[in-house]
Amino acid sequence: MGTGLLFDLSNKTAGFVFDFDNPLTWFPQVNIFYYMGADGLSVPMIFLTGLLSFVSIFVSFGIKDRVKEYFAWFLLLEVGMFGVFSALDFFLFYIFWEIMLVPMYFLIGVWGGPRREYAAIKFFLYTLFGSVFMLIGILALYFTTGTLNMLELISQNSMYPHLFQMWVFAGFFVAFAIKVPVWPFHTWLPDAHVEAPTAVSVILAGILLKMGTYGLLRVSFPMFPEATKAYAVPIAILGLIGIIYGALVSMAQKDLKKLVAYSSVSHMGYCMLGMAAITTVGVSGCLFQMFSHGVITGALFILVGVIYDRAHTREIAAFGGLGVKLPVFTGIFVLFGMASLGLPGMSGFVSEFMVFIGSYQTVFFEKWIVIVAILGVVLTAGYILRMIQKMFLGQFNTRWEGLTEINGREIFTVAPLAFLTVLIGVYPKVLNVFLKDTVDNLVKLILG
Questions:
Q1: Does residue 4 form part of some domain?
Q2: Residue 232 lies inside a defined structural domain of this protein
Q3: Among residues 280, 405, 270, which one has the least CA distance to residue 348?
Q4: What pLDDT score was predicted for residue 22?
Q5: Does residue 2 fall inside a structural domain?
Q6: Cα-Cα-Cα-Cα dihedral of 191, 197, 198, 201, to 10°?
Q7: Which ranges of 9-156 would DSSP assign to H, the alpha helix?
């Protein structure tokens, strides 16, 4: 990777702005290079990966069994995440994508909850199933062009026949949609989240789900512009279903961790809607939502872990009136709850507002999709406020007389996430400065 992570604005290669050194020759016989770089799509995700991984180390202090193996797998997982966000050669991209599978499988399967083996195998099989379609797509591109260099493949996108674009886009979409997860590929997510240790849930929600949307914006959209426009309506409808379905299922949850897990299905639906619009504001809103969701939901999973460590239950109805006993914890939880439902002044509001504005401006799908999607905001407010009311307000349940307040280490883990949530909500330009040029070039590339 180049010495800096920001941009050489004079070098707008194939619709993107990269900073990189010459690629290292790896397997010259088959034209494979060790080629890495960063642009406006990947820089925010690389930063978020580093931040959440650092925070997760402190969240992992409760791990008592096989500690060395736990952190070894965790660091290997971090290698895979950084690799996916910086790879510019498809062979390298695929290796890093698959590298993440193994540590995540063991982190859930060894250190998870009572049904950890089932959740780990389900996660592994779902993601591996999607990876097969990605591999077929990569091979199709390689046999057509003779290269795996992403920048070269993007620059040659006008040469791909329409039917070729449609089929290869569909293959990549299955792989990325499972990771997002898009309805109906989402069923692995609640099991994996509920059984995973707290730190692994933070990484799973904060980073791994974003790899699906990142892959669509990095690979599918710029390489197959005709297919992107053709599939805009189905992608928008899948995003709409995710928004409404995820919110409705969250409303029905009795387990606090499952509620936050299903809320991810709803919030990632906004990303799908924004990118399907193929407008600068819509795609920017998608990227804002990716970053915002990683920060907010990562913090919510940390806070769920905090209360679970003390109460050994996640049943929402079991609590009541905790605001009296745990005022600091309550205040922090309510802050992130309000950010999740899109309260103005928080990052969640900025991202959702940009998605709706960008989607309403599009010519690729009807306005009614956006209007119905706005109902998701109301439903999100419903399940978040209901959860806050049942847990923190009302009559204090004396069963929890012995609960202790959130401690300094736990506050340290959520403090930077709270700062970013408010900073981006009040001053979005701090994130937009990284995204603007890359998003402009990406949209121009797709629209021709």
A1: no
A2: yes
A3: 270
A4: 65
A5: no
A6: -40
A7: 42-59, 67-86, 90-99, 101-111, 116-145, 150-155
